[in-house]
Every structure is written in structure tokens, then in C-alpha cells.
Design a protein that fits this description.
The protein has helices spanning 33-45, 72-83, 114-131, 145-155, 176-182, 202-214, 228-237, 248-259, 265-279, 289-297; strands at 4-11, 17-19, 27-30, 49-55, 88-93, 107-108, 111-112, 135-138, 162-169, 218-222, 242-246, 283-286. The chain has 300 residues and is α/β, with parallel strands linked by helices.
Length: 300
């Protein structure tokens, strides 16, 4: 149970609980009683932490709401920190949900400007920490992102905040439902220029080692099930905690097959998550977290 982290989508508005069509059982919540009720259930089930993904009121070229004091994630952090002092609060630190072009960084001359993006990510991380985040999770696969965020946090006095780096993030076909949930699909092109080639396992070890040197506290592999070998390889290389992200497409496949009567959802989910743990993951980010907590509390 202590290994589970539940992703939560937050939106502007009042009284909003907006189901996500491609992810049955998952919804977007407004930062009011709707979010309270959802997180109350997770806390009551024993989930130790949530990771927040925000949908902004408006988008621009650099994703300004991403680091605004009244940004949607900042609002959610302040509300949740006041309501749940002991809940572990993680935030996604990336640009894709906030930018008008949908890419994970600042676009200059048609390509992502890595160094300019680092300045944005540093600012976002400090903003999230100031609002109450315990763990900052950069996901854009920018070179040097961990070092930039660590420097920004330390300079701002947040030396006790942890960095969970998406150190190994593949250019995967399994992200489709998330892009619907977060409204984060690129307006043009794709993300293969900064995400990793699924055929390349050796690069994963290089990326993970670099993030560790830059000050990451946790290293994550995403997606999980198609990359169990990579989870194992990273686990054998590092003494840091290793996380795995059981992504939206993996969740949606199980949900669809279970709805069709083709497999036992509970058994399939528990088997899959066990495989991730067996491969070496200490922490599991999964949309199944709330369900798993209830299943484990009431074993068959």
C-alpha cells in the first residue's frame, strides 16, 4: 500500500467532476469540495500520496499559468496541504498541459529550446514548492532539468524538497488517454526529439545516471509494463528509490478488456503491479491505486 501514488487531474470551475472517456473511473476535479471528496476517499483507503496534473484556464507559448501564483496546481496544493498535512503531495513539472503548442518546452524556430525551457521548469518547481509540494517530478526529458530544478529549489530555500525525475521516459504509444485527460497533445509534430526510442535500453542507464548525478532523489521509468527489463536494469545500477509509472494506456487496456468480460480486472491489475515491483520498482504511480487499496483491504 505504501508504494502507491494516485494521479489526480485538477481543473478550474466549481463543483466539477468530469469523467474522462478513455479512462473509466478517472475524472477531472475542480479545486473545491469535488477535489476534497475524491482525495478523502484516497486517504481513507490508505493511499499515501497523489501527483497533481493541472488543466489551465488558458494557454500561451510558454505556459504562463504553469508558474502563476494562482495557477490551478498551486490552488490545489494550498487546499490539499491545509486539509491533509501528512499527505505526500507530488506535482508534474512540465509545460505540455499549459502551452498553446502542446510541447514540453519553449519553442524557438520550430524546435524545443532546451536551455530556455530549463529556466521555466526551475520557476515552476519553486512555485509548486512554495504552494506546498513535497516532491517535484520533472517529466519533459530536457537535458539538465534535474540540476536546474535542484539549483532553483536550493536557492529559494527549499532544500528539503525531493525531486522524482522522469529519468527514463519513452516515446510511447501508451500515452493517448492521458493526452485526452490533460488536453496535452502536441498541436503539430511529436515528442520523439526529446523522449526516448523504445528500442534503446542502454540510453536509459545513461539518462538515469545523469539525473542521479544532478541530484535526483528518485528515478522513474515510464511506461512500466513494456519496460520491465529497463526497470530491472536501472534498479541494478542505482541505490536510489526507483519508481514506475503504470501509464494511462496500460490502465485503459485493462479497463476495456475487463468491461468486455475478457479478463478479471482485479487479478490482472494485481499481477501487473506485482510484476513492476518484482522488476525493482519501489514506488508505483498508477491510476488503479484507489481500487488496489480497497481490494487489499478486503481480500478474497
Amino acid at each position: 500500500m505504501d508504494a502507491l501514488i494516485q494521479p489526480v487531474f485538477v481543473v478550474h470551475g466549481a463543483g466539477v467532476t468530469q469523467p474522462i472517456g478513455s479512462m473509466p473511473g478517472i475524472a477531472r476535479y475542480s479545486v473545491d469540495a469535488a477535489l476534497d471528496r475524491h482525495v478523502d476517499r484516497l486517504v481513507a483507503a490508505g493511499i499515501p500520496g497523489v501527483i497533481l496534473f493541472g488543466l489551465p484556464a488558458s494557454k500561451d507559448e510558454i505556459g504562463s499559468e504553469n508558474f502563476a501564483e494562482d495557477g490551478i496546481v498551486q490552488q490545489a496544493l494550498r487546499r490539499l496541504r491545509a486539509r491533509y498535512p501528512d499527505l505526500l503531495l507530488l506535482t508534474d513539472v512540465c509545460c505540455c498541459e499549459y502551452t498553446s503548442h502542446g510541447h514540453c518546452g519553449v519553442i524557438r524556430d520550430g524546435v524545443v529550446d532546451n536551455d530556455e525551457t530549463l529556466d521555466v521548469l526551475r520557476t515552476v518547481a519553486v512555485s509548486h514548492a512554495a504552494a506546498g509540494a513535497d516532491v517535484l517530478a520533472p517529466s519533459g526529458m530536457m537535458d539538465g532539468m534535474v540540476g536546474a530544478i535542484r539549483e532553483g529549489l536550493d536557492d529559494a530555500g527549499y532544500v528539503d524538497r525531493a525531486i522524482l525525475s522522469y529519468a527514463v521516459k519513452y516515446a510511447s504509444a501508451f500515452y493517448g488517454p492521458f493526452r485526452e485527460a490533460a488536453d496535452s497533445a502536441p498541436a503539430s509534430g511529436d515528442r520523439r526529439g526529446y523522449q526516448m526510442d523504445p528500442a534503446n535500453a542502454r540510453e536509459a542507464l545513461t539518462e538515469a545516471a545523469q539525473d542521479e548525478l544532478e541530484g535526483a532523489d528518485i528515478l522513474m521509468i515510464k511506461p512500466a509494463l513494456p519496460y520491465l527489463d529497463v526497470i530491472r536494469a536501472v534498479r541494478e545500477q542505482t541505490t536510489l528509490p526507483v519508481a514506475a509509472y503504470n501509464v494511462s494506456g496500460e490502465y485503459a487496456m485493462v479497463k476495456a478488456a475487463a468491461a468486455a468480460g475478457w479478463l478479471d480486472e482485479r487479478a490482472a491489475v494485481l499481477e501487473s503491479l506485482t510484476a513492476m515491483r518484482r522488476a525493482g520498482a519501489d514506488i508505483l504511480l498508477t491510476y488503479h491505486a484507489g481500487d488496489v487499496a480497497q481490494w487489499l483491504a478486503a481480500p478474497r
